[in-house]
Amino acid sequence: MTLIIGALLFSLYRQLVIEQQYQVAQHLASEKLRYQQLALTVSRRNFAAQIRAADPKTALIAWRNSVDMVGALSLIPDNMPLLPQTRDFPILTGGPDKLHILTGGIVLTRYGPVLIATRTDHLATLIDKFINAAATAVMLTILLTLALGYLFSKAILRRLVHYRRLSEQIAKGHYDTRLPESWRQDEFDMVACQFNQVLDTLETNLTAVRGVTDNIAHDLRTPLSHLRIGLEQLPQKSAAECADASAALIEELDQCLATFDAMLSLTRIEEGQQALELQPLSLRGLCEDLAEMAEAVAELKQQTLTLTTGKDFEVQGDKHLLFQALYNLVDNAIKYSGEGARIEIIQEGRRVEIRDNGPGIPDDAREKVFERLVRLDPSRHQQGTGLGLSMVKAILARHNTKILLSDNHPGLVISLTFQ
């Protein structure tokens, strides 16, 4: 603010000085032309009379005739330049302002040199007043800017201190703490909003980690307990019983290892660490392969699996991962819809639906089923890792495909929309 106002005032000062110099130069030039023409048209006596009659408010004239000085000035200073060159010189008067500053120069006429000058000390006074006013304005601006800057910085510092205290609370583990947002919606509020969103995501992730930890403990405690009890009982068994028990223990251990392998694979897919082998795929062909493989599994549970296809749609994707995701969805429908259920695979353009008439999924659990190691209570008796739908969602997300669960009255409808 101070620099800008100072620059503006300096610019005005320069314009004022230049304009004054221009006005003085124009005035002296016009007087020079006037007296040169006057000397050419009148006699020496009339020329002297004209100089005596000149108005001193217009110009101060001095001309030396053969006898004495004629005009408003009593002398011609030495080393005065020829107009348009000028020089400042002082004169003493009998008025209240005894010292005047004049600006003038010499004009060569037919009757000799004539000094033409004009008073400029009042112009210098005007410039001095302007400088004093400008200096006062700059000082007031500096004081006002410092005062406002101090108040503004105190307000900013107060908010920063408050943010720092809240950050310390978050660092201590109080993840439900949020930065306040004001009605101003300024830069601090934008930062606070973004930071609060990060905290929301962090709190959600921490909750998910706690949930995963609880689910791991819940799902793996039983098989690990079985393993421990089985290992303790092995020395007491016969050779034949020991072989059967070992096979059962190995199966339980394989199930635990499968859970951890699935979690690692899911993490690689979600974090983009697993590269996709993209290729053009026919969505109709993918559904036909899916129905052919799942049909035999459905027949074992006396279920009916039907396929309805429409207009084909080509997608760019990893054939192995996409088929795995679709098969997991159909396998879940077969596994949980019960014996004698009807399962439909419907493909129309970019849209694929998997329908069943089983018990379905409650509305409040349709988002929860996509979380890691989450299995609804009715499915606890079924063997599995609890990562199937999490894997499905991760694979579809890598392929920019939307998945939606809805009610089939009764049963479940899984809708997939490919891009």
From TrEMBL:
It comes from Shewanella salipaludis. The keyword Transcription regulation does not apply. This is histidine kinase. The chain crosses the membrane at residues 130-152. Residues 215-419 form the Histidine kinase domain. It is found in: Membrane. The keyword Protein biosynthesis does not apply. Keywords: Kinase, Membrane, Phosphoprotein, Transferase, Transmembrane, Transmembrane helix, Two-component regulatory system. InterPro entries: HAMP_dom, HATPase_C_sf, HATPase_dom, His_kinase_dom, HisK_dim/P_dom, HisK_dim/P_sf, Sig_transdc_His_kin-like_C, TCS_sensor_his_kinase. CDD domains: HAMP. Gene3D superfamilies: 1.10.287.130, 6.10.340.10, Histidine kinase-like ATPase, C-terminal domain. Residues 154-207 form the HAMP domain.
